[in-house]
């Protein structure tokens, strides 16, 4: 992997004006994410991690500072479809089959029918849902629905995947399995992933870099480069190295709170 930066934020701030006065959701956030990185954002509720992801996706506008996605503004990145976005809930349309849901962005983008079919088949196999194309969302478990949602975000082959707590609502066993699958998917596709989570083990297990955020105003309190190998069986979570990184994340979260 080359060292090129694919997401770059500089002194980024975002203040929401509310009836109770201004809310400083992000304050002076600077961060570089390199191509092929898997970066997790972790912190308490209200620390701005989802807001930061939404700024990347051009769903929120910063009030100060700058951010570049793939060298261009988030708006241009959105127009050129540089990223796929996976929400907390799978957000599949119940009246469309799984294949139909995944085809939706491709239809909007004007891909021809043959290309659509080929892409749907490929991404379903990537998320291990081959053969489920004609099923409806209600026929799939929660974990399978989230995988279909990831497939939809991958269908148009964006370089960047933005994931907002995609496994937060799932039970631990399913979540573990999806974490393993997501790492394999990341390895196969070489995507750059920005991933929001509340879970320390999930952040440590998945990431090459962990960004610890503090509560309002949302600031970065620590950036931890993972020393874990790229190959990560679930058992790695019992290793001293894993426990050491998890401890540092915990310390960062604690330090962020004590600033208040």
Detailed description of the structure:
This protein is an alpha/beta fold. It folds into two domains: 1-82 and 160-179 and 191-260, Rossmann fold (3-Layer(aba) Sandwich); 92-157, no CATH class. It is built from eight helices and nine strands. It is globular and about 55 Å long.
Q: State the fourth-level CATH superfamily of the largest domain.
A: P-loop containing nucleotide triphosphate hydrolases
Count the E strands: 9
The CATH level-2 architecture of the largest domain is identified as: 3-Layer(aba) Sandwich
Number of helices: 8
**What sequence of helices (H) and strands (E) makes up the elements?**
EEEHEHEHHHEHEHEEH
Question: Structural class, judged by helices and strands?
Answer: alpha/beta
Tell me about the largest β-sheet: 6 strands, mixed
Summarize the structure.
With 260 residues, the protein is α/β, with parallel strands linked by helices. The protein has 8 helices and 9 strands.
Task: Furnish the topology, listing elements before pairings.
Layout: E1 5-18, E2 21-34, E3 38-42, H1 49-56, E4 64-69, H2 74-79, E5 83-86, H3 98-108, H4 113-126, H5 142-154, E6 160-164, H6 172-189, E7 192-197, H7 200-206, E8 209-214, E9 219-225, H8 240-258
Parallel strand pairs: 3-7, 3-8, 5-6, 6-7
Antiparallel strand pairs: 1-2, 1-4, 8-9
Helix pairs in contact: 3-4, 3-5, 4-5, 7-8
């Amino acid at each position: 992997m080359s060292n090129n930066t694919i997401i770059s934020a500089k002194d980024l701030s975002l203040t929401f004006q509310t009836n109770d006065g201004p809310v400083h959701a992000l304050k002076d956030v600077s961060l570089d994410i390199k191509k092929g990185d898997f970066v997790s954002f972790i912190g308490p509720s209200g620390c701005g991690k989802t807001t930061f992801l939404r700024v990347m996706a051009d769903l929120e506008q910063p009030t100060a500072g700058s951010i570049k996605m793939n060298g261009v503004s988030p708006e241009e990145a959105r127009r050129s479809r540089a990223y796929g976005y996976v929400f907390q809930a799978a957000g599949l349309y119940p009246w469309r089959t799984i294949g139909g849901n995944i085809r939706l962005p491709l239809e909007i983008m004007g891909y021809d029918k043959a290309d659509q079919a080929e892409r749907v088949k490929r991404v379903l196999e990537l998320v291990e849902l081959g053969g489920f194309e004609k099923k409806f969302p209600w026929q799939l478990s929660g974990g399978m629905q989230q995988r279909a949602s990831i497939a939809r975000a991958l269908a148009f082959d964006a370089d960047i995947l933005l994931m907002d707590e995609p496994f937060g609502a799932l039970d631990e066993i399913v979540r573990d399995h999806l974490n393993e699958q997501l790492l394999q998917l990341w390895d196969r596709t070489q995507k750059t992933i920005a991933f929001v989570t509340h879970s320390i083990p999930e952040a440590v297990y998945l990431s090459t870099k962990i960004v610890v955020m503090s509560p309002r105003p949302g600031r970065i309190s620590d950036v931890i480069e993972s020393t874990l190998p790229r190959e990560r069986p679930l058992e790695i979570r019992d290793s001293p190295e894993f426990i050491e990184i998890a401890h540092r994340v915990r310390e960062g979260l604690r330090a962020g709170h004590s600033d208040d």
